[in-house]
Records
---
Amino acid sequence: MHWLELSVTVDTEAVESVAELLARYGYNSGVVVEPTWTPGTEGPEFHYEPEQPVTLRTYLPLDAQTEEIRQQIEQALWHLGHLRPISQLQTRTLAEQDWANAWKEHYHVQRIGERVVIVPSWLEYTAQSNDVLLHLDPGMAFGTGLHATTRLCLCLLEHYVQPGIQMLDLGTGSGILAIAAAKLGATSVLALDNDPIAVLIARDNVARNQVHTIIRVEQGSLGAGQQLGHWMGSQYRLPDSAPVPPGDAQHTVDQPPVAPQSIPHDDLLSESQTAVSPEPIQATGQFDLIAANLIASTLVILAQDLALALKPDGILISSGIILEREDEVVQALTAAGLDVTERRQEGEWVALVCHR
């Protein structure tokens, strides 16, 4: 089987809208985000340049509909190009083996915050003193550390994870935040995701990092979140009782569209299809710390459940918040009885720290 890779270069302000467009058509809604990097002074470490252009890639299986879809994408990009600088759409054909490894060239050893270092499993890195190494295969799951929302969460976890805490990682994706928390000293971590493929990939990454005795990865969500479906998929929907937020986007960046080599794609499909439907987690006063790297509308819906799941004096780290939706999220969290005590921003993205 052959695949068509489509790539386009945009400025940072257009990343979100173009990523959303590509995700509508790309296989498994996958979009690879390739920021501009500069090499570190030592070894293979690279640094992200947030003000430089970003390349976005998605993949289509080559079949009778591929050319029509390519034209639709090209036309939509032409319209978006009237608002922000967008390069001409580039394409190349990849064989199955090439496609399965194409995304790996866009990932490098990356230091985030003071201690966390993300090391793709196919690369080698010599740890420095006090480094916390995350050996990560992102696969098809959200959360590689490349996106601002993930980086904001990792920096906050460095500050707020204390030895012995119990933590919930809601919307775990690749498992990156859960793994970081475990290596920073958490005693028990429950990692939840509505996507069965993300659950399989997160479990694989947890095992790779040898923290499987600390982290339990399950398919499911907290409280009302079970009604939403997978937030990146076509089945995502708000519950009937929830107001529809204006202009909400499903943020699909930071998500490579292929499975890691250790989990063949056919096996992923067969396992997910036979998985038992998850039950919603009804947690009350159970967690010292919750990391919820989601999207604004989901955080609004889950605000009450998140507050109830925290122990007294517990901490919520919420991210995935686009700047224009920040006030809405703050209002929902405050109404749920949480105090916003810290705010961090990178580009258009905001992370909030709340105490119960």
---
Amino acid sequence: MSAIAVEKLSHVYSGAEGGVPALEDITIDVEPGKFVVIVGPSGCGKTSLLMMLAGLRHQTEGTILCAGKPIPEPDPERVGVVFQEASLFPWLTALDNIEFPLALRGTPRDDRRRRAEEMLSLVGLDGFGARYPHELSGGMKQRVSIARGLAQDPPVLLMDEPFAALDEQTRMTMGHELLRIWSTTRKTVVFITHSLTEAVYLADEVLVMSARPGRIIDRIEVTLPRPRTYEMMATDTFGKLRERIWQQIRKVP
């Protein structure tokens, strides 16, 4: 069974003159445990598609199945979401922020604290549980956000440009850390980025989208061995994969 199966999905935003087409004839099949990255020009509908996969927005046409079932509304037991902004509650500590979705579900305090501590350790923030968001760096905040997304143990994790606001060095470090977390948890990940280097470094498969209305115009299998290393970025294989993505995007008007 596919972790995510999208069939002939299209979406039109209502408005003047019959609405604005945003997505057109999207078909995606993501196997369990795969790391899929979506790239495309600004405004092509990447985030809209991700919100539909999360059950946060409804498509006009087509179907979305997560683990074989529709997802008409958010279901954190099946799908976790990490947004571009960490969006942590400033009055809560790192541990309390991670616990928050578990508290909403009525998880006993001892159980949710144990789970939050496990996730904090997984993202490499042992010893920072009592810190408040203003005491954490940008990269640390995103680690807390990832830990919160993993806390309910969903099989699918959706990530909308989670490292976009970070400097290049921190961004590369966070990408490497994300692969470590992914290799440990074996979640299915769908990741949006504008960085072609980041896309190739992270992905099993890169989906390239056209300008609005967004369509899948290329599917690129990344055959680089795992675990990935920074040295791979200097190889011919890496460069050719990145160039293939760029050639698709630069054709977009």
---
Amino acid sequence: MDFKESAQTKIKLSGFNNLTKVLSFNLYDFCITTDEKQKDDYVKYIDEEYNAKKILQISEKICNIIEANILNVSIQDYDPVGASTMVLMSDVKGGKWDHTPQVNLHLDKSHITAHTYPDALAPDGICSFRVDIDIATCGEIIPLDAINYLFEAFHCDVVFIDYVVRGFTRTAEGKKIYNDHYFNSIQDFIKPEILENFQYRTDINLGHENIWQTKLMVKNFGPERYVMEPKYASHPDIDKKMQLLHQEMREVFHLNS
């Protein structure tokens, strides 16, 4: 199918759109600490800034962006760290939700799950915060429309983005189609001003397999970006800490231990 034609012409389907589209957005945010108190402060900051209720608000915003209707939610904070949320949603617009969290839910075809993984155990003081967000939809919703908001909602130092489309649906004439939106790269959906913040970018585009992946690592910003308070940017060991930080980022980006 010609890309230009498909981008301009809406395909008329027979019945419900059965295609499943899944966006996985996995990010790492790093922080430099110089003593145990700063580590404790970092964990407290993460617990306040990204607890289950805060992550739920982000998921609600995603639903608003992709025009999905929230059916129900489940949230959970963990001891000592971490949080998980799940939002059950539908592409049927105009419904209402009473904001009452439920624990036992039936997963509809469309949902958002989010899990956080704070890490302050590294002996060198390089702390990290990982978030895994999966947006699985069925119908006309395109999860990629929320990608720029995810960059805005978090501090992203290393990012892994995967996107797949599975199943098939049929046109009004009965012909099977395996994708209802055509593009070249995940990066086509990311604002240029966001991409400019990243120095390393890898792109895997298997359009014929309906598989895409983008990996990004942020530019070499100064220590002010990574310390808990501005005064720590002038710490005597800050140059050594920055070297350790960049080494940690490179290892995560290349999946090396």
---
Amino acid sequence: MRLQALTLALLFCGPLLNGQQADRVPEDVSIDSKQAWKQLAGNVLNDQKHVIAFPWQLVRHGNHWKATLVLSAATAGLIALDAHDAPYFRRTGRFDEFNEIASATNTAGLLIAVPVADYAWSAQTRNTYGKQTVFLAVEAMADAQIAAFGLQMVTRRLRPADVAPYGDFGNTWFRADPLARKSFPSGHAITAFALADVFSERYASHRWVPWVAYGLAGTIAFSRITTQGHFPSDVVAGAALGTILSHYLVLHHHAH
């Protein structure tokens, strides 16, 4: 919930949407530009229309049904293994030092710091392309967090850390309090991979960028398992959804 609050605060600290949604990234992205904030909010709202329409498109036209079935089957398989995988990470002390560094707060701060640092550098060097990349990154973060929040409210899955000692790790669905932290999918993983996809595709000419971006995203995602914040299936589903949202929704519809 901390990451969701930070992302939504970053998104909506600008003016509220009061106009038509533009069809492309602004020519000049600035945190002081009311038009840029309006367009960002409009893009995010427009993205949600596509998300909501996806099940209808899948049923009516069969678009992406093969990929959907593969992802669903993989997620179902991982869910079946969660009850066997999760107890290991509760018992082991192998990741204690790693967990101190890669805590939920630290990794959330890193996810916010990356686009902020890129914007600061791009603004300093007057790099319009870099600032537009940050615009798309924030849009991807917002879409990812909205998707994560919606799915978490529907599934209400307990987090591994919330399962009682010697409790049943296989009975976690629809049990979390609506106001408590929930598990499926991982908000950190969905956001990390959404950002990784944006930066990897926008800076594809720099071959090291995808390695660093997805390396950091994978590390953040793994930390959610070792800290007992999420089950492995939560993380894998979040990583897949983040990449899909970023690639097919944000970049496909808005990048030029």
